[in-house]
């Protein structure tokens, strides 16, 4: 195995997964505001420290995805966040895309930015201690109209260019084409879109000669849209999610992590448990784990409310959720 493939594999250490703590300033502000917490650079630092400073997280976390701002900040232990994670055996990663903007020819769809100065930024992140990176593309479903083939293809091209640059820089790429939960679509439509998006993505990755043995796929689960009025059972989610992945993801891929995408913490935990059971039944070839943000954070954030006196209770809730999500890995 190459060094990069070994790093990728380490993120799938049994019983462990990845915390996504890479909300941009804009997303972190919105996240904190939704819990009534006013934002400032210091409040964002405390928000990061709430999770990364929790004693014992190394039992459940193989990696944490950071935002560029956090790479340069210190936790309450006075250590830079990436150094503090590494000292506990948790791999530090960083989100390297620069967010999305509407596509001029299809303004309801989004294209991800950030390729222009990527090699220079990767060199900096590597110096700061990152060993893996993430790039998120967004796919919106609207009936049979969206996503368009052109948007799927352009996002796939950028994900492939990103992955190639990242491997050249000596880092592991996580490629994340997130199929949004928002919408009225059925679970069958979600599955079909995931298959189409991943089918296109892996053929474009091949064209760009990306080494799949050190690529990690971060994917949505196949779910009925949040405005469909339908709640899927974990078994339904697992069957369609694993079927879509078996159909479109090459065996060589280093592993697959799931995002929570707006599911509740309990839904994301139960669905992950059913997915890992189904993967075993069908002998899926890749290791699987979680890479959640909201589903790991929500209970802790509602207890914390930005107040020092609530830190202990919030961290206890975070550890409790981590232990449930870890148990869901089987
Ligand atoms: P959620 O688990 O909240 O969907 O976030 C994961 C992520 O990294 C989205 O880019």
Describe the fold and architecture.
The protein has one domain: TIM Barrel (Alpha-Beta Barrel). The chain is globular and about 50 Å long. By secondary structure, the protein is an alpha/beta fold. It is 46% helix and 17% strand. The chain is built from 12 helices and 10 strands. 1,3-dihydroxyacetonephosphate binds next to strand 7 and helix 11.
| Number of spatially distinct domains | 1
Which strands sit side by side, in order, in the main sheet?
A: 1-2-3-6-7-8-9-10
Helix content: 40-55%
So, the CATH homologous superfamily? Aldolase class I
* Strand runs, count: 10
Count of helical regions: 12
Specify Rg, calculated over alpha carbons.
19 Å
Main β-sheet description? 8 strands, parallel, barrel
CATH class: Alpha Beta
Low-confidence stretches: none
CATH architecture level-2 label: Alpha-Beta Barrel
One letter per element, helices H and strands E, the order comes to: HEHHEHHEEEHEHEHEHEHEHH
First and last CA, distance: 26 Å
The coarse overall form would be globular
| Mean pLDDT across every amino acid position | 98
The hetero compounds bound to this protein are: 1,3-dihydroxyacetonephosphate
Strand content: 15-25%
Structural category is alpha/beta
What would the CATH topology be? TIM Barrel
Could you give a short description of this structure?
The protein is an alpha/beta fold. It contains twelve helices and ten strands. The chain has one domain (3-327): Aldolase class I (TIM Barrel).
Sequence-ordered SSE layout with sheet pairings:
Layout: H1 3-10, E1 17-21, H2 25-34, H3 41-52, E2 61-66, H4 68-71, H5 81-87, E3 91-95, E4 100-103, E5 106-112, H6 118-127, E6 132-139, H7 149-168, E7 172-179, H8 187-207, E8 216-219, H9 234-248, E9 255-258, H10 265-281, E10 288-292, H11 294-304, H12 311-327
Helix pairs in contact: 7-8, 8-9, 9-10, 10-11, 10-12, 11-12
Bound molecules: 1,3-dihydroxyacetonephosphate.
Residues 20, 136, 176, 178, 259-261, 292-295 line the site of 1,3-dihydroxyacetonephosphate.
């Amino acid at each position: 195995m190459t060094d990069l493939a070994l790093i990728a594999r380490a993120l799938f250490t049994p019983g462990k997964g990845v915390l996504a703590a890479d909300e941009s300033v804009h997303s972190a502000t919105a996240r904190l505001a939704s819990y009534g917490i006013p934002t400032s650079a210091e409040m964002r630092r405390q928000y990061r420290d709430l999770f990364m400073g929790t004693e014992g997280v190394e039992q459940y976390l193989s990696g944490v995805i950071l935002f560029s701002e956090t790479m340069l900040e210190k936790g309450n232990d006075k250590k830079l966040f990436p150094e503090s994670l590494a000292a506990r055996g948790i791999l530090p990663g960083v989100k390297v895309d620069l967010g999305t903007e509407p596509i001029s020819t299809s303004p309801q769809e989004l294209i991800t930015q950030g390729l222009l100065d990527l090699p220079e930024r990767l060199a900096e992140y590597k110096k700061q201690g990152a060993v893996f990176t993430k790039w998120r593309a967004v796919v919106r479903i609207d009936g049979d109209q969206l996503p368009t083939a052109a948007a799927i293809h352009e996002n796939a091209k950028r994900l492939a260019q990103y992955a190639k640059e990242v491997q050249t820089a000596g880092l592991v790429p996580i490629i994340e084409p997130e199929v949004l939960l928002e919408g009225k679509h059925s679970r069958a439509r979600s599955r079909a879109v995931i298959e189409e998006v991943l089918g296109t993505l892996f053929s474009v990755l091949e064209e760009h000669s990306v080494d799949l043995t050190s690529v990690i796929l971060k994917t949505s689960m196949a779910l009925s849209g949040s405005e469909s009025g339908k709640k899927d059972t974990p078994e339904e989610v697992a069957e369609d999610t694993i079927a879509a992945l078996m159909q479109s993801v090459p065996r060589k891929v280093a592993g697959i992590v799931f995002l929570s995408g707006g599911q509740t913490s309990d839904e994301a935990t139960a669905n992950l448990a059913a997915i890992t059971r189904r993967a075993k039944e069908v002998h899926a070839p890749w290791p699987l784990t979680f890479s959640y943000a909201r589903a790991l954070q929500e209970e802790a954030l509602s207890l914390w409310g930005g107040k020092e006196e609530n830190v202990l209770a919030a961290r206890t809730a975070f550890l409790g959720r981590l232990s449930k999500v870890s148990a869901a890995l089987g």
